[in-house]
Design a protein that fits this description.
By secondary structure, the chain is mainly alpha-helical. It has one domain. It has two helices and no strands.
């Protein structure tokens, strides 16, 4: 029983320490800090989205170029057969 009580007290102390640390961190931040960090997060998300769309655009462009090249090649073959 005594061992269990000590374990419960230690667990409660750990949770209290973590809560106090998080609370002091949040209390330390000002509105300017929160706005700056929020802007940084939004900028990083925007960069990731831009990179993804650029990659998708490049993939589509490559697919389009291959399609055009295949069509040109088939047109050349058809011309050679006609001559």
């Amino acid at each position: 029983m005594e061992q269990e009580t000590l374990h419960n007290i230690a667990t409660l102390a750990d949770k209290t320490t973590i809560t106090a640390a998080a609370g002091s961190l949040l209390a330390h931040l000002t509105a300017n800090d929160i706005a700056a960090y929020g802007g940084l997060v939004i900028a990083i998300i925007g960069l990731i989205v831009a990179i993804i769309f650029k990659w998708l655009e490049r993939k589509d462009r490559l697919k389009h170029y291959k399609k055009i090249e295949a069509k040109r090649f088939s047109d050349l073959e058809n011309r050679n057969k006609d001559e």
